[in-house]
Write the structure tokens for this entry.
Amino acid sequence: MTHPPYLHPDYASTVLRAPSRPPLEMKQDPEAAELTGPVFGRGEVDPLDADLTAGHAGEPLGERIIVTGRVLDASGRPVPDTLVEIWQANSAGRYAHQRDQHPAPLDPNFTGAGRCLTDDEGRYRFVTIKPGAYPWRNHPNAWRPAHIHFSVFGTAFTQRLVTQMYFPGDPLFAFDPIFRSIPDPAARERLVATFDLGITEPEWALGYRWDVVLGRTPMEDA
Amino acid sequence: MTTPSQTVGPFFGYALPYAADWELVPEGHPGAVTITGLVLDGAGEPVPDALLELWTGEGGDRGALSRSGTGVSGFGRCGTAPDGSYRFRLAPPSRPYAALLVFARGLLKPVRTRVYLADVPDPLLGSLDPARRATLLARPEGQDVYRFDVRLQGERETVFLEF
């Protein structure tokens, strides 16, 4: 079982939001709207949107990193020209969001949102800073491990994926009900990026590699 | 080896919404309809931090993200307001329905459903008893406006789908 269940009481917000009935399994229908998805054109995404350290008066504080990888379909084929969106807290663990009340400093040089389209080989690449861990009110002394939110489209609406990428060796994994909502420990590990010296750029930024594998579409051959 | 889903969380509001995201067609587009409603939790309370995505199954020349063209787009996105409401303006789809995804804090994976603009013969609608079917039917409400509430949990829970 790859995905978490809807109801995971350790994550308190699921209790009133998880559907109580299992989803209805759809019969095969080659005409279903969900077997296609929106196409985003090259002209719709500014290449500068992939650099979260740019676009402000100065450089953001924190550890500069490169996060790159490929978007693949369930058969391991690259998914080119698909939209990847990310958002994250700053290096102090604070989001540039009005409702984030964590008393950590905002960074005037960091907003923390980026977009890009995958290239012909399904590759995406962002330059950003490593986000900080932050507290939340789910339970006493609750902290989220550092993570980057990812939104990926794929070629069919059924493949739509929103998830979170984590960093290797985070001591908070053992205490995080969102990470632990994924029942299979091996599947959890697929959300953890790999440090990669080959991606790391000397004198400039650490490199992390993380591939995204989308679910099988209903009409796709095994 | 699929990548697991995680919640969209509460703090996507400065990142995922974009200009005219809910407007699949520009204002004044001939024949445009508006789908609007509330997202409600198991206590019947509005969900003020949900993100909805609508897909009609047909692309167009308006731009799914840039909205730079004058024509139509098949894709829209709308974050709920503090009262749990959302809205989409679109050209009536050629299918009797539009596909809908809902993301929110507390949803570890999205719920997906369909907004039917008419109660027509349809394999999915036909497989449901009247009370369940009613949760997929948008209700005409004034001229060119359809009301469609998403009830995440409980009595009158929306029928959610898995492909």
Remarks:
- Chain A has one domain: 37-213.
